[in-house]
Specification:
Blueprint (H helix, E strand, L loop, with lengths): L5 H53 L5 H12 L2 E4 L13 H14 L5 E4 L5 E8 L2 E8 H4 L5 H40 L13 H47 L7 H25 L8 E3 L1 H14 L3 E5 L6 E3 L1 H18 L8 E9 L2 E8 L32 H11 L3 E6 L5 E8 L5
Parallel strand pairs: 6-8
Antiparallel strand pairs: 1-4, 2-3, 3-4, 5-7, 8-9, 9-11, 10-11
């Protein structure tokens, strides 16, 4: 339930801070106002008591009941003889009542008492004496205390909302260029070429944006130089390789056929390795994404291997169209199948490979499964690096260690990832997962 973005975390922090400040200010106001307000209420009670006592003393005894009835009707003030009625046992204990009682005792005498009783908004009972007779004066609490300042609460809420809104605008102006930088960094990390990010916002954000733009330009230039260099090297190497192959084919007929076939195979292996170098450099990041049916794409790749006599089983279940780079995705699947057929066989049986596709919620999966020796869990991450191979595979000189690195790079370019998992019953599962609609 906690906000995860910088914007809403900051807004929530500002709101909590302002609410805390308002509560603290309100409590401080109540504490500082308590004593002066209590003394003011005590003075009002003393005045009411004195006036009531004076009215009762000077009134004709036969008219006192009428006077008490008039006080009750007009002023809401009731007078009870102490021997007839006492205040209820239920009382409201408040620090201010002690101050009120002390102030009244100082003016009216030490036997004076003040009691706050709940019910009907609360009533305040104050005792006084006429000669030897004791009376209770009952006055509504609302006559002495001010109503709760709801209008001020409204103003406080308005100020709080305005402060939170201003804080939101400030953080939004900081967060907007950061969000743009994040999107550009993700695109750059997936092999794309982001547009220069607009230098906007505070000076620190501008400096960060400027540094990112310079870094992006340098990386793009270095990547272009690397692609040009490797493409030139591969082109220059393939020409002498073609001549070598032609020369091998024209070797005398009396030459050992095994030696001749070995030379041709070595040349083909070298050509394959160069092709892998070129495929690693040209990862397909410049290819436009298209919405395709994944199962149909898988079937088109698998049919090539079936025509070559390989045993491949397809279990399609991804019905939703996906946005991918078709050529890059075909290269990804072809590399996984090549690896499966190269390392997925056993000593007693050829490789039997299964290709599965399925979808769960917002992700789509593509798995290539075999029954080979698999990859130890401790080595699963290392073999995804370029030129890294397991010790058991190093005797196979036909590979360059780039197959899985190419697959991993294409998967990350689509916003997904490659996982090498142990298959139930033995073998390896190479699983690709990526969002149904990956971000551009």
């Amino acid at each position: 339930m906690r906000p995860r973005t910088l914007l809403w975390r900051t807004v929530l922090l500002l709101a909590l801070l302002l609410i805390g400040v308002q509560i603290a200010a309100f409590q401080l106001f109540r504490i500082t106002e308590r004593e002066p307000r209590a003394r003011q209420i005590a003075q009002q009670l003393v005045s009411v008591v004195n006036l009531t006592r004076a009215a009762l003393i000077t009134a004709d005894p036969t008219k006192r009941r009428a006077l008490l009835a008039e006080l009750s009707e007009r002023e809401g003030i009731r007078i009870y003889p102490a021997d007839e009625r006492q205040p209820p046992e239920a009382r409201i204990e408040r620090p201010g009542m002690l101050i009120i009682e002390d102030e009244m005792q100082r003016t009216l005498g030490p036997r004076t008492r003040a009691v706050l009783v709940p019910g009907n908004g609360g009533t305040l009972w104050a005792s006084f004496e006429i000669d030897e007779d004791r009376y209770w004066l009952v006055i509504p609490r609302a006559r002495l205390e001010r109503a709760f300042p709801w209008r001020w609460v409204g103003w406080i809420c308005a100020v709080l909302a305005l402060a939170v809104l201003c804080g939101w605008l400030i953080v939004y102006r900081i967060n907007r260029p950061l969000r743009t930088l994040t999107q550009a960094a993700l695109r750059l990390g997936r092999g794309g070429v982001p547009q220069p990010v607009r230098e906007d916002g505070p000076e620190e954000i501008r400096a960060l944006t400027r540094a990112f733009n310079e870094m992006s330009t340098e990386l793009t230039s270095l990547d272009a130089d690397r692609k040009l260099l490797l493409a030139g090297v591969s082109h220059d190497l393939r020409t002498p390789l073609a001549r070598l192959r032609l020369a091998a084919e024209m070797l005398p007929a009396d030459l050992d056929n095994d030696a001749k076939a070995g030379i041709v195979q070595d040349i083909e292996d070298m050509d394959t390795i160069i092709g892998q170098f070129v495929a690693f450099v040209r990862d397909g990041s410049d290819e436009a994404q298209q919405c395709v049916n994944l199962d149909e794409l898988v079937q088109s790749v698998v049919q090539r291997y079936v025509r070559l006599g390989h045993c491949v089983k397809v279990e399609p279940a991804a019905s939703a169209p996906v946005s991918v780079r078709p050529m890059a995705m075909q290269r990804l699947l072809a590399n996984l199948l090549d690896n499966a057929f190269k390392y997925g066989h056993t000593a007693h049986a050829p490789a039997e490979v299964t290709v599965q596709t399925w979808q769960q919620v917002s992700k789509i999966y593509l798995s290539v499964l075999d029954r080979g020796p698999g990859v130890p869990e401790s080595e699963a991450q290392r073999v995804l690096e370029p030129f890294e191979r397991l010790e058991s595979a190093r005797s196979n000189l036909t590979g360059s260690g780039l197959g899985l690195a190419i697959v991993d790079r294409i998967a990350r370019m689509h916003g997904g990832r490659l996982q090498l998992l142990a298959r139930a019953g033995g073998g390896l599962e190479a699983r690709i997962e990526w969002p149904v609609a990956p971000r551009q």
